[in-house]
Specification:
CATH superfamily of the domain at 226-328: CO dehydrogenase flavoprotein, C-terminal domain
Order of helices and strands: EHEHEEEHHHHHHHEEHEEEEEHHH
Radius of gyration: 20 Å
CATH class of the domain at 226-328: Alpha Beta
CATH topology of the domain at 226-328: Enolase-like, domain 1
CATH architecture of the domain at 226-328: 2-Layer Sandwich
Strand order of the largest sheet: 4-5-8-6-7
Number of helices: 13
Structural class: alpha+beta
Number of strands: 12
Amino acid sequence: MQSLSYDRARDVDHAIELARQPGAKFIGGGTNLLDLYKSGIERPLRLVDVSRLALSAIEELPDGGLSIGAMASNTAAANHPLVRQRYRLLSEALLNGASTQLRNMATVGGNLLQRTRCYYFTDPAFKHCNKREPGSGCDALDGHQRIHAILGASEHCIATNPSDMSVALAALDAVVHLQGPDGARQVSIHDFHRLPEDRPQDDTVIQPGELIVAVQLPPSPFSRHAHYLKVRDRASYAFALVSVAAAVDLDGDTVRDARIVLGGVAHKPWRAVEAENLLRGQALDALDDAALARIGEAAVAGARPYPHNAFKVTLAPRAVARALVIATGIATGMTGGKA
């Protein structure tokens, strides 16, 4: 049996120093790491407990933005008055992301670092997984791909990112604040998660020994007209087959700016820039079924489905249309009427 050491960090600098030791892993809420440890996927030699660090504050910034400490629980973030008032998209995503018990334990920093829920990764009975054992192959390619990626995948990995929170953060242009052996740095949420390419074992750009200390949100024009839509196999706690973070900024009845980000379709939150461009400048009364269909189809342009997940190429555009209907309050025949 492999021995496992445990240290409780006193402060951020102490945590980073402890993480220099071989085989060290940070642990906060542990809702993902412990599952992977028990199944033998993660094999840390030392756990560095950061759960008691003073990183749980949620504070308004001087420019009107918001700083969310990495150790803030998902429940605390979802229910914070400023999040609910100014960043409803984030609150909706967090509340859709997990059961109450898990939200109470899971942290914002840990949520950003979730490993994929690909069953070929999480079950060691499957021998070929480039994310688990680089160079071993990918059993999902010839397996059951219902939950897998249709965008941004590679021949090395077709897994998807499981985080609902990250999809909303991408729509809100969040910035991840890191601190590590080489000092502090900031990374845009759009650059934080990686596509698999030929290194699917690297989910993010985080460096060894770096600790997420906060997530900052800029002032948002999307507080009023936004919606997070999650499509899943059951209404209770389940990962998204497709999710959509849709937000619009209106100038009267015209779309001044927009964000459309998809979850459940790629190795990272997938920002649909082409779909956003089609939406900008549109009058709300011009967003009929045909216009919404075009915007939805643009969101999955270039999709490369597999036999068991081809349904996502149809489902995702419809989810985009529905999310936009709810966000804007418009009424169309295709989406079942005004929300």
